[in-house]
């Protein structure tokens, strides 16, 4: 009898939807909740064990199953459970995967089955109301101490603020939603609920490290930030679909860790630094919890002259770690060294994923100056005949770093535009996505697009 039940369960695993964990998407789940009717992975089964009033779990292969339990699993399954428990998940709400931290997966499971937030929209108020106020532990920029600070998120003002004192009338910092990112960093921050918030300050990325003792509260803050970003982007890009917007709400870093680096002359000694790969930006810090990066470099695509080598030049000296990496850009080479071969492979994989990916038009606009530093280039130009076209910078290796090839989005019947005294080739709007075209149109309409006969370090309006 037990063998027949096990065979029936294994057959159920072959049904559509059951071959991945119902909660995190991990392949080949071999556990199940026989009270919820879902197949789950080992990691998520541990979370289910902590809510026994809702979920009771068994191993598909190792435990003994009773016939009614197997019949219950046959009547339900992962697809049916998603239809029941995820019927009203907001588009902005983060759906964790098996690669996400324990906190995100735990609170996702509790939100679905224990609190049933996605079948009762009124229970989503803590992160969907457009306003949130509370206290988080924040790390001091200079002394490194975590102190309780009041945070206020207001969608109406498009900002997240924090205050140094409870009775303070003016915030210590105002973080604009349009430039804000949040990512959980429990290991780096040293707390299981650690959240890293980044925003632009004077064209530099400012890091803020926070946590809350209550994991549910911290995840509510995270999803409230995503909701604010989502609603901002909906207004900014009315023609964009939710599918276009959701990937832009928050992003995780591609890779972080220690490497050694040398200076631009490549004759200085190598120094150990903490590196963060944030999409196409490679930043380095003296300490992982530094408020600002010591420098950063933009990594473009292979067709733009970027490549990555798994070695250092033969004449290189001064590095203590043996596993070298050379990042080749159109302007110079960046020399790095890893402590272990496995770390070298991991960094090479991260770099090559970026280099092998063609650049999008808006990524040309976000490219900074060459070197371990740099602000973004400001889109700039003149319009003749009282009309204006929108364009972006595409730096190339064949011209002066202060110039660039203009990619233009034309309106009406088209017109002539000069950028920095040069006429350049055009890019038809059809080659850009609707989201990118809307981005530039909004910048012009709101006055955040800079028009000038020269180039200067700044960022475009969005």
TrEMBL record:
Any one GO MF annotation of this record: zinc ion binding
Pfam family, one: ArfGap
Location in or out of the cell: Cytoplasm
PROSITE patterns: ARFGAP, PH_DOMAIN
InterPro entries associated with the record: Arf-GAP_dual-PH_domain (IPR052589), ARFGAP/RecO (IPR037278), ArfGAP_dom (IPR001164), ArfGAP_dom_sf (IPR038508), PH-like_dom_sf (IPR011993), PH1_ADAP (IPR037849), PH2_ADAP (IPR037851), PH_domain (IPR001849)
Keywords: Cytoplasm, GTPase activation, Metal-binding, Repeat, Zinc, Zinc-finger
Zinc-finger recorded as keyword: yes
Protein's name in the database: ArfGAP with dual PH domains 1
